[in-house]
Design goal:
about 120 residues; mainly alpha; about 0% strand; flat
Length: about 120
């Protein structure tokens, strides 16, 4: 993978937790709504934004895959999954444990192992 492809993959890994945060925000917003699910979906701006974000992110992923192998590009999703607990802690005041940190460290080690020598 080229440096540009690596940077694109890092950008994608940042886009994923943004989408997850939008879905969490939508879930919190939904708790204040009433009525049947279809009506709540249509009257939930964070949820509509989350769907739009995921649509754009899917197009971004498609572009990345036209340039980079799936096996190399997907390894970068680990970066994004590690950001999610930090965002949950900072924005939504959810707890973060040392076990989460240790697990993420192991995931990063796996990322390094799977991407070493592929640059």
């Amino acid at each position: 993978m080229t440096l540009r492809d690596t940077l694109l993959c890092i950008g994608f890994s940042i886009a994923l937790p943004i989408g997850q945060s939008l879905f969490k925000w939508a879930a919190l917003y939904d708790a204040r709504l009433s009525g049947p699910l279809p009506l709540r979906v249509l009257s939930n701006p964070p949820l509509i934004g989350a769907f739009a974000w995921y649509g754009l992110t899917a197009l971004f992923w498609f572009y990345i895959l036209t340039r980079a192998p799936l096996s190399s590009a997907y390894a970068f999703a680990i970066l994004g999954s590690g950001l999610i607990p930090l965002i949950a802690w900072a924005v939504f005041k959810e707890p973060v444990t040392w076990q989460m940190g240790a697990g993420y460290a192991l995931m990063l080690a796996g990322l390094l192992l799977t991407t070493m020598g592929k640059a």
